[in-house]
Amino acid sequence: MTSAEMKAAILHHLVYTQGKDAVTAKTYDWRMALSYAVRDKIVDRWFEATRRAYAEKRKRVYYLSLEFLIGRLLKDAIINMRLEESVLDALKDLGIEWEEIIEDEPDAALGNGGLGRLAACFMESQATLGLPAMGYGIRYENGLFRQRFEDGRQVEEPEDWLNQAHAWEFARPEVSIDIGFGGHVQEIGSRANWYPSEVLIARAHDTPVIGWKGRWGNTLRLWEARPMHGFDLARFNRGDHTAAAEPEAMARTLSRVLYPDDHTEQGKELRLKQEFFHTAASIRDILRRFESEYDDLRLLPKKAAIQINDTHPAIAGPELVRILHDERGIDFEEAVGIARNTISYTNHTLLPEALETWGEARMGRLLPRHMQLIDRIDDLHRRETGTHDLNAHHDGKVHMGTLGFIMAHKVNGVAALHTELMKSTVFKDLHELHPEKIVNETNGVTPRRWLLSCNPRLSSLITDSIGDNWVDHAEDLKKLEPFTEDAGWIEKFTAAKHANKVDLSNWIAETLEISVDPDSIFDIQVKRIHEYKRQHMNLLETIAYWLEIRDNPNAGWTPRVKIFGGKAFPNYIYAKEMVHLANDMAKVMNSDPLTSRFLKVVFPPNYNVSLAERLIPAADLSEQISTAGKEASGTGNMKFSLNGALTIGTLDGANVEIRELVGAENFFLFGMTAEEVMTHRAEAGHAARAIAADPRLARALETIRSGGFSPEEPGRYHMITDNLTHHDYFMVCSDFTDYWRAQRDVDAAFADKAEWARVAALNTARTGWFSSDRTIRGYMRDVWDVEAAPLVDLAAE
Ligand code: Z16
After folding, report:
1. Which Pfam family, any one, appears in the UniProt record (predicted)?
2. Is 196 in the pocket of ligand 1 (CB under 6 A)?
3. Is position 503 within any domain?
4. What is the domain count for the chain?
5. Residue 416 Cα, ligand 1 centroid: separation in angstroms?
6. Of 248, 307, 559, 727, which is most buried by a Cβ count within 10 Å?
7. Pair 73, 108: CB distance under 8 Å
8. Are residues 349 and 363 located together in one domain of the fold?
9. Cα 40 to averaged position of ligand 1 atoms, centre (Å)
10. Do residues 692 and 641 touch, judged by C-beta distance below 8 A?
11. What is the CA radius of gyration of the chain?
12. 635 is annotated as an active-site residue
């Protein structure tokens, strides 16, 4: 597409789609016009890919997830369609700032963190690989809350991304599916009719997902909840104005808001309704498509693979069995077999507080037929395995992890260590009964968004050096290794990183009014706030360093900028205290004349996908410091490494694999192993002993306790200090000394700029394996048994 054609397309949409005159058009109008112009180019390819999937009778993958953390879409679309040049030229011609347009797009924050972002990376990789696939999610009106700070405390505000028109979706009112809840069951022999007492409509909204170079396109289908009967005119006419709108409001509540739960199960009824609504609509849609192509339901596992992202859609098993058995008349055991061979389940955490259970009373009320079927599934599983105590339904609850496991043919962990821990802990007994079921698929990230798009300087250097094949063959980044021995090339690498750091410094100055020195170590920890991720250990180390500088302000300290980002679950008081402490520390430290040359603390609010894209390319040091055994994988860790940051981290999640790939000598390892954590935790008084043995730690804790960062309220952080002193389940104190040691190793290493840059470049060269393309190929081979379509130029057809 030429620049002139692009310009004409933008102007056309500005006038005829957006309904605006160029003279009065605002940034928003130009963004919409550009989005429609780009979207037009995508749609033909998208249709062609869909037609081919049908014509070639291909097996499809269905990715069911309550979360898709997709972020902004415009730049991604432009890059994958290779339209940057024509867009940049056209905008220049029109006198419109590219940066301003890109920044105007709201983030689609339909997810909490890693789990939702993984689903988004998977959608992009599936399209890039030419794999016929469809993502199913919920079209939340309000995504993850927006975070503000008020006197350093987190305040949550609704995220109303749908307030503006959303250029990327197509509403599909013709795809409307009835979803029932409650009511009663009438059994007829083995089968039953279910008569729900409440019915809602699920309406589809489709977003095209275009792969690299536009060679394949898939669909992300998000469900909106709508009332069966809208506005009650009879009631209105009787003068009952509020009640007239009630059924509508009730139904819409279902897709109103994303639960901000991150590793906590709240057991809320509305959440269970969301899960069933999402799953039932998706299963109906999958079967409708299948039955339009084939007339034998026994073929389902050959033509469809349903992946359930964590247990949130685990009701898919019973729902599929219900349709096959009750509605289509297939024998119960055969129905279970078909469902199992179609479904597979990904586990994302072993934290006990995150494992979903639903009370049998609530489940029986809301989903009476499913409750019966779960008991029959349990019964069948007992007969199959000769066991008696491994039921999904026990102790008055339905355990969704067990249900997910027994209704799947494959169950996967998300990093090598995590998968091994699944086998030896949470799923130990089930694993022994089904030793072939658990497989590992180490997570990945899309290199299109997480290198090419977010880090243009480094990407250009890479492409200038080895060509652009790395973009969809990220293992090619290995070819950079010889360049890391070339001093001239390393200078260019350093220049790219430095320019990224200058950009970030300017942004920090403008938005937060904090001045930072781009020559400092940019040390970044961004992720949800959680005790197991140990942001407070990083804060303690920051305090200890600050105190050390104050003791001797004229020594040669290595300057650091400590950057934090992340949201705390609104009911998780401890995590909110960590946020508050970080902000209180920033206030004291950034204005300390003795230390501020050497140490700054920066906590930009509202960490999200777009902020990650800004921060990660500017990082020198990636903080991956979770208690060993607790972080299933991590994916931020991969993004940092790929962008040339060094990692300070524990042997946890995918850190283990990162360290193996980049080389142990290029990784700042510290802390106990998962096994050591388990034995050490059993030794009473571990925290007190660790504090007694490390005066730096004792002093840092004492500084918090005595109000060093909250003079107006010295006791403010007693929850944290008491917990760390007396309990410390996550081993902050016991790992602190080694963490401090590793941080000082970082200082020493940073002094040799060229060597640091060489190792940083090696990180980029050696972490191409973490492309989500590799992950998706793994699922295709080990879990889905599916092949991709050949990649051709769809536009030429
Ligand atoms: C989540 O983001 C994850 C797990 C979970 O149970 C719930 C949520 Cl919202 C994360 C894991 O914590 C992380 O280690 C992993 O990399 C990510 O899921 C994707 O697998």
Report:
1. Phosphorylase
2. no
3. yes
4. 3
5. 15
6. 307
7. yes
8. yes
9. 35
10. no
11. 27
12. yes
**Is there a single domain that holds both residue 93 and residue 201?**
no
Chain position carrying tokens 């944290």: 720
Q: CB burial class (10 A; 0-12, 13-18, 19+) of residue 717? A: buried
> What tokens were used for 376?
């029959």
**Residue 527 annotated among the catalytic residues of the structure:** yes
Q: How far apart are the first and last CA of the chain?
A: 17
Tell me whether residue 727 is in a domain: no
405 and 310 housed in the same domain: yes
DSSP strands (E only) in 510-667: 521-526, 560-565, 599-602, 621-624, 646-649
Q: How far is the CA of 368 from the centre of ligand 1 (A)?
A: 31
Instruction: List the residue whose alpha carbon is closest to atom 3 of ligand 1.
Output: 115
Q: What is the pLDDT of residues 16-38, one digit of tens each?
A: 999 999 999 999 999 999 999 99
Ligand 1: which atom is nearest the Cα of residue 418?
14
What is the CATH classification number for the domain harbouring 532?
3.40.50.2000
- pLDDT at site 797: 53
**Residues 33, 61: one domain?**
no
Catalytic (active site) residue 41: no
- Over the chain (797 residues), the average pLDDT of each successive run of 10 is 97 98 97 98 97 97 98 98 98 97 96 98 98 98 97 96 94 96 97 97 98 98 93 81 78 93 88 98 98 98 98 98 98 98 98 95 98 98 95 98 98 98 98 98 98 98 98 98 98 98 98 98 98 98 98 96 98 98 98 98 98 98 98 98 98 98 98 97 96 98 98 97 97 98 98 98 98 99 98 82
Ligand 1 center from residue 608 Cα (angstroms): 15
Domain that holds residue 544: 447-672+735-770
User: Do residues 297 and 338 make contact, with C-beta atoms less than 8 angstroms apart?
Assistant: yes
Query: Does the CB atom of residue 575 touch ligand 1 within 6 A?
Result: no
Residue owning tokens 């130029």: 793
With CA atoms as reference, report the closest residue to 146 among 186, 185, 107: 107
Q: Which atom of ligand 1 is nearest to the CA of 354?
A: 6
C-beta of 72 in contact with ligand 1 (< 6 A): no
Give the span between the Cα atoms of 91 and 73, in whole angstroms. Answer: 18
- The per-residue pLDDT for 9 is 98
Cβ–ligand 1 contact at 631 (below 6 Å): yes
SS3 285: helix
